[in-house]
Amino acid sequence: MNKRADRFLVVGFLTILFSLLALFIILPSRTFSDTENRKLHQLPQMTWDKIWSKTFSSQAETYFTDQFPYRESWVWAKSILEQSRLQQENNGIYRGKDGYLLEKFGEPDKEKLQQYAGAIKEFSEKNPDAAMTFLLAPTSIGIYAERLPWMANSYPQSKVNSYIGGILGESLTYIDGFDFLTPAASKEIYYRTDHHWTTYGAYLAYRAYCERMGWEPLSKDDFDVKTVSDSFLGSYHTRGQFFGVQPDTIQAYVPKNLVPVQMTIVDTGEVSSSLYKPEFLLKKDKYSYFLGGVHALVTIKSQVDATQKKMDKLLVIKDSYAHSVIPFLAQNVSQIDVIDIRYYNGSISEYMKANGIKNVLLLFNTTTFVNGNEILKLKY
Amino acid sequence: MVFSSLLFLFGFLPIVLLLYYCSPRRIRNVILLITSLFFYAWGEPVYIVIMLFSTLTDYRFGLLLSRPSMPDRQRKWVVAFSIFVNISLLGFFKYADFLIGNINAVLGTDIPLTNLPLPIGISFYTFQSMSYIIDIYRGTAKAQRSWLDFATFVALFPQLVAGPIVHYSTVSEQIRHRTVSVELFAQGVRRFTIGLAKKVLLANNIGFLWTTISASDIQTLPAATAWLGIIAFAFQIYFDFSGYSDMAIGLGLMFGFRFNENFNSPYMAQSITDFWRRWHISLSSWFRDYVYIPLGGNRRGSWLQFRNILVVWLLTGIWHGASWNFLLWGLYFGILLIIEKWIGLRFLQRLPKWMRHVYAGILVLFGWVLFAFEQLTDVTAYLQAMVGGNGGPLWNQDSVYLLYTNAVLLVILTIACKPAKLRLQQARPILQLCGYGALWFMSIAYLVDATFNPFLYFRF
Asked: Are the CB atoms for A200 and A189 separated by under 8 Å?
């Protein structure tokens, strides 16, 4: 009896080891992971330099794990095991109530906040003839704290936003996202499965900006609201890998009074006549429908007619929350230059001088703002 | 490369097994040595030289000691010199910066730090080499004639990185003559699987709880969370370390080696004396055999015995890391052991069993606080939080959340602390296959997930 068990075990063990090794060798190397939205590591080159500095061994290990047979299925299995042990979070994502996935938000480092806000303040003082607005939008956990799992706790983003507001003082116009999002909290202003706001949330941001600038914003009736996708499983879903999550819908607000636009992605030189890229709706990364995803520098020219036009030139310094806001702004502003500070490496002050820019909108969500020291690039 | 990495499990291990079992017996040690050196060089391409140096010198010293004509005085010098070489290596790489830092702090000097990384496994292989030399001196082992066989003993990859510290006398026979059988190999598979599951499923996951709690503000930590945190740490360090030892012992069995045990359900201890008989046995027995007993042990009266206990436990403490908190941790246990020897044990025996468990458990937990934080200010803040002395609430919302989301895991961990009578081993073959298979399946899932790294800002 025991002998049989021993033989079973040895054979089983060797089968697991060798069959996974064989599968790893046989299965073709994949270059891209849809779920993870990144390039997968390939077999590293072996050089003496790399061997001595241990880069070869660490690259080889990443290559092996990246190309591990049935990678996605293992990740999915782990998520099921985690949920079955009552764990309410996975990879930093909470499984909240009403189908909302929420990203953990811990207490940020006050010193860093001071640095980041200081950089913005300095930037505004360095360019005194430009009118600047800073819009800081909370992410879904900031507004939907009551949708957290039972007893789960999150550091209030509202505290961060007012702290930043306090530091900035009167140095520029500050719009705290809580002011216009909290009253609309009962509506769908955030995706349930992604870290972005919905088009409606973006519309509210546009309206708040117009009001602060003293403009009459377009009303919701000026748009036809179209559902362009109902199968959006966003970044929170990707990270959390929870099962039984309902996909989101993506809406486009199509203006009834259509304005011709021309968008130039300066990074690649690509020019198009639409602010939307429907081809992304067929991919995993559906939010890139807006503006075609992240680029260092994009310029948008729109032929706004005189009745709607409020401004000639606007520079938007932003993270991806701005992508769904910019189509609204393009209804009122004839040229919008969009810089993603995380990828743009020139001096922004120089850029403003060279292009005669007098109006700036800084738009970030609280999580990116707190975690990214790229904002310090404003100093250059 | 660690045992709990996918590349080791599905790359290195199958290839080594294949090479080993396909080659004739007489070259199997060479295969083991070459693959072990590859295993070491994978993580330490430069420092492998140090390991080979240590091996070569002790091999020569061993041969020297075995010359029958050598007078005892000279033999003592050889042993002393060998110990000096090993301790210098260990001292230079492990303790130089700690020493320099303290000298700078006390004397206000500005000696630059060496900033050298610690060579992997150096704390283990220097101790093993020393045990070899001392065993030969004492005559409990014979010097190894072949350098190849001696190098295989030191570099043997299953125990090279994190022990157990194998005494030369334990395996001296096995290096030349070892039997392999399906039974032994299956036993190795069982042991390895259990170790892998302990590390990947238990230690890593409870480790997240400890990371969360120790990263939060200790000054305002509620007592309940502080206790939960240190219990999590206690589980993490035990299942991590004993899991690694299990994997090492299991791998040893697969190649025909029988290493000594390293843990014996330490959290079932009924006193601190008992705890140290069950925790990291290969290290405590090393210190017992090579420091405590040579110093006179308990044979020269109470005072000298107390001194010897303190010396051994200060050394044990500092062995764990070059930092004051480890020294303090050793001192803490040294003092507790002295108290137990002096009065405690007689008193303890009158208590009911459950109270003895609670007594040992609480003292061990307080010890882990010393172990977990390098900064003494953090230690005091954490201890204060545990006794509710920081003015905060006894518990809050976070305590409840962390407790219920880890409740299932905590129950499993508690059960796993009891000595398993290896019920699975006597189960029907098919059940065994399913049981161990499930552990593998879950471990792989967690290992792959740990490398899961979604890229959220979509640009390449």
From this structure: yes
